[in-house]
Amino acid sequence: MAVIAVKLVALLAAVAAVQADRDPILPFHESARANANRIFNAIHSAGRQWGSSLNHNGFGFIPVVVPAGTSFYHGGYAEEPPRGIEWLAFEVEHAEFFARPPGGRHGHRPPCPGEGQLHLLADQAETDGGGCDEEGRVRGYLQTYHTTRDAQLLYLDGTSAGKTLIGTLDSQDEVLRQDDSRQGGIIEDEMKRAKALCDMVTEWGWDGIMRMEAGFEVIYCNFSSGLHLDSSLRTLLVEDRMKGDANLIPLWLRAAAERYDGIGGDRVRMDFSSMVSGFFFPINISSTDPERPDLVRLGAAKREHLQDIKAYLQSVFVEPRKFVVNWQAVVDMIVARFDKRLAAMASTSVSPDLFISELEGITLTYYEAPGVPGDITLAREEDDRNRTAEAIDRCAAHYLRPASPRQQEWTLSDALIHTSLTTVTQRICSDLFLMRAIFLGAVPDAAPDAYLIKRGVKSASMKQAVDESRAIARNLVQELAWTTRKKPQVCSEEEILLTAMWPFGDSVDHFNPGCVPFEEATARRRSYWQPLEQRPYVE
Ligand SMILES: *[C@@H]1O[C@H](CO)[C@@H](O)[C@H](O)[C@H]1NC(C)=O
Ligand SMILES: *[C@@H]1O[C@H](CO)[C@@H](O)[C@H](O)[C@H]1NC(C)=O
Ligand SMILES: *[C@@H]1O[C@H](CO)[C@@H](O)[C@H](O)[C@H]1NC(C)=O
């Protein structure tokens, strides 16, 4: 399947290249390896407000399906549903901001729509007039819709609805649109952008484009198709509200922040098997701003390379949806296993004892202990095994396993994503076993294959091993750049956010769950469940 896809793509690209008299660039496993951390993080952040805000310059193009029955909201100045292209918000508060009558008090007639005024934030500005009452007062309306069938959208990752000049629009303006005729400001350009994107996706039979700013939204290309209007409610004038609209923005931001970890409600299904990313290609993505070297952007690549990416993604997107592997689920399992652990190991506030427990905990999972004389259940020993190398392989492959049963069906996107994700897990796992080797080297009497790192060794060499390993952990955490690390944590690295979970937990953990230090989270902590009939899990 992947082979066929590659051939098809190569064919299509070759056609384009013949016209252009050059070899087009194609997705490349070497690029997937070189950009492994960025691809990993893009998959982790897809459809999530937190990471997509931090890594705001999106490189990803992902076909998504919004199921029938999903609610959307539209704020504007007309009671009737818009004709043609308009904006839909995933959150009520986002649309409500645009459902306010535009600024200006009673008596001050604000300009009516259709007089050329675009809303401050451009989105959801009405373009089809109406909404003015007899005195010329503009009224706002909050419209609620639901999808009457599955809607097929093109999701542009990052903060792709951010009307900025720092790279958030590159996937649209530099790849999909390639329109140099930008007129007026970046906001005035928004309607033209929407029109151009809709022209492209409707040709594939799709319904719109999904993007993100403070909140996720859809540029919906034809309101007469696939949407049912549930209500259209006229909103109060500002002076008629008890409290004006001073708190609209914090309420909107809080609603957007509820989606930091995902849109929720099963509202969007992402086809990662059809994902195309600029990171798959051998292009120059260096920042064009010397003051922000961290700010990679698609717009830094050569125009002809961006044309090749566009030709490639068109060839992928005309094919039916695939949904072979949900790579975000794979990534989530990796982050959940390693994130807090690596953070603890990188932190100087964590004691050497806890550091060693963390390291042993995560490495020994994958390490087969050598036999010792007298073992009863000893299989035949093969002495020439490299147990460490085996353990690293086991560790790196562990969380990629769910993707393997359908490997025969993998698309090229699946194969490229797999390359990136294994690059990341191999890096994590080999660093962990490197740290273990440093500790084993620091214990003088350790056998080469010592199963247990000796505890409580206070020697200078042990201290040095902790320092060296901590530096490796710190460097690893920095390079992985998981956006979860930027989130303020409820508890410190040496604590657990604890509720009573049988067979553990004191009454306080049930009635007032909170942060509990590791050393207090012991088997003795179980008063809530008294009296105990049996004590199967305790010393
Ligand atoms: C919008 O959808 C309606 C209903 O399916 C259809 O009749 C109309 O032609 C569509 N408009 C455009 C511009 O495609
Ligand atoms: C990549 O782009 C940056 C910024 O435009 C430029 O300074 C650099 O020379 C380019 N590198 C290559 C290898 O073309
Ligand atoms: C075993 O594998 C590890 C990791 O690849 C390597 O660092 C080490 O040198 C190998 N040991 C032997 C004895 O070959």
TrEMBL record:
Keywords for this protein: Signal
Signal peptide boundaries: 1-20
InterPro entries, sorted: YOR389W-like
PANTHER family documented for this protein: ENTEROTOXIN, YALI0A21131P
Name of the featured protein: Uncharacterized protein
Organism field: Trichoderma ghanense
